[in-house]
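Internal QA ticket QA-208
Title: Verify multi-chain structure generation after dependency bump
Assignee: T.L.

Test input:
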Amino acid sequence: MSSNGDNEEPLYGERPEWADVKPVPQDDGPNPLVPIAYPADYADAMSYFRAILATSERSERVLELTATVIGLNPGHYTAWKYRQDTVLALSSNLHAELEFVENMAEENPKCYQIWHYRQAIVDRLGDASREVSFVNRMLAIDSKNYHAWGYRQWVVKKYGLWDGELRDVDRLLEADVRNNSVWNQRFWVMENGPEAFSAQKMDEEIAYAAQRIAQAPRNESPWTYIRGIVRLAGKTLAKVPAINDLCTSFEAQDMIVPHALAMQLDMACERKDVSTTKTICDQLAEHDPIRAKYWAYRATAAA
Amino acid sequence: MRILGETTDATPDAVKGPIASTVGQPAGPLSDDGAESWASDFFGAADDGFPTDSSELQQEVEDSIAPLLDPYQNGSADLASVKLDRAAHNKFVQKNLLSLPSYFISLDASKPWLVYWTLHALDLLGTPIPPDTVARAIATLAACQDPDGGFAGGPGQLPHLAPTYAAVNALAIIGTAEAFAVVKRPELLSFLLRMKQPDGSFIMHEGGEVDVRGCYCALGPAKFLNILTPALRSGCGAFIARCQTHEGGIAGVPGLEAHGGYTFCALAALEILQETSRIDLPLLAAWLSRRQMAVEGGFQGRANKLVDGCYAFWQGAAATIVECALARVRAEDLEEESGKREDVDPTDMYDRVPLQKYILLCCQDPGGGLRDKPEKGPDYYHTCYVLSGLSVAQHSYTWSSSEEDIIPRSSAKPCIVGAPGNKLPVTHPIYNVLVPHVARICSHFHLPYTL
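Actual output:
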């Protein structure tokens, strides 16, 4: 791009309102490694951004400049930070910032800075009323977006927005029962939510997971969930009859489900039943050969 | 996903590297020679007749790699002749080092990463780093150092823990007095302490986010530079332990989902602190073993996500550290019984052979460079981490109580899949620079700077 594209703004170097600023070109030194052949628009905006950093100017035009830099390179954490400090210094309209972030997030859903920036703005605003629906829009694009889940946990916990969590979890598991991020969120609600976790709750959650295991027995997520829930309740697997029933139900159907065998292995270990442990490890090595070395280790560790 | 190197999600699937172009590998129909049944019993592969988005994406990957793996599974092609194409990868790494194309502006805040990824990749490929490249690397890293300590993503940017880690690793690879002289040690320590939070975590930069990468990116350089002070260590292990999830793997922050990139960072940091006993190692070992994909042989980053070549390092090195830590626990138990202290050899917990097959057959781009999976293009990040993962998979390691470090196991034969010439030098599973570089930088900085 020699100048800018057809519909773009002029370069900062061509704008009268920036004539008072002397641009500072990038100094890569005389013999750089990995220098980037900067496009003209990025080189131009960065030269003005460096000049602004040097003078610590906080102004409306800085917001436009940082938006240009961030728009071209969303990972530019220094520009994000400078924008944040400027927004707070100017007492800018924070709702407008949320819109700015949302537009950026749709294009760059996995950029650390965008999510952190939104958190800082919402924290200052003290109003998280639109945040869960924002996250839901982002999860509709990618239901396993790690940053979106992290931001969701921050918002829900900080502002006590627990009411809709299990409803959204159910909806997302209905859409994809293998979405491990959603299973993790369910566990997080059990562990951190306002409702005290009880033995009865444990039974209900095991039944919930067992239903979803019936849909797709080789789906790892609900199996791991059950282990977590039992641990959260302070119990051991072998002492929960429903788990044994779940595992043996596949034997009755003549189905080999490695996750069920692995659960039975852990129960045998809890009972210190060495011979059953070894038998199951052998079965697993046969039916889950990629992990044969791990199952062999488990057999040795039990001895 | 790029986990370390700013931007992304290691997905972290995340940023697939800066390179937009992808080399299309058509998803061919599943060959009818039985690849499907080969996998059907096992974890992950089958959709149980209940397809969802996750299982459909998984099936697409399995279908697309079948033509690459099948000839070697059914014996119609000879695995022993499969080569790591060093010349092509070497060319890929070197060709743009003096002028990166304009789309690399997405990595304009990751300059030290570009230096580290390329130098470490060349090191692993056995390519001597040309003197001009060394001089330029030193100058570029020096230009990224902040006068008040720490390294930034580029000249004039804010110092940040991730490029600080990358810069110190790159200087360790170069390993000359001139390279070591770049680092302002007292200022670096002061920067690390400024990032430290009361709960033991670190913010990545002033005003930045907290996650477990910060612990690794602070402690790794601190160990190399002999500034791992009690104030710096304090509380880190406890914070990291809070990030272990009910699944057994480790998340970026407490509460999130277990994830390969963060698991590596967390575990490597705990090993540097010698505080692995803070987490449930058997639970972690079980989670790690489940991350190896039954059909592909490579690792995924999270449960029910897709394979990605970069996890060969993140998960493979984490598995190696767990193996060594469990062997250390075993040695301590035996010492209690017998009163005699002897190191115990670790037990393998993942299968190195299918992992290497995945790397050699699916992650080598025909035009040079390594990649996430066949339908993705190569980039520097994946070239660095896929090769690092190959090195860890080829070599055996053990805990040495005399050296107080994880070291290559001299008694074990390397496990080399394909041509014997595929053997790579040994990378350190904690720091991810070649093993001799660790000793060299530690010995250079063996005196505390206060003396």
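Spot checks passed. Chain A has a mean pLDDT of 95.
Status: verified.
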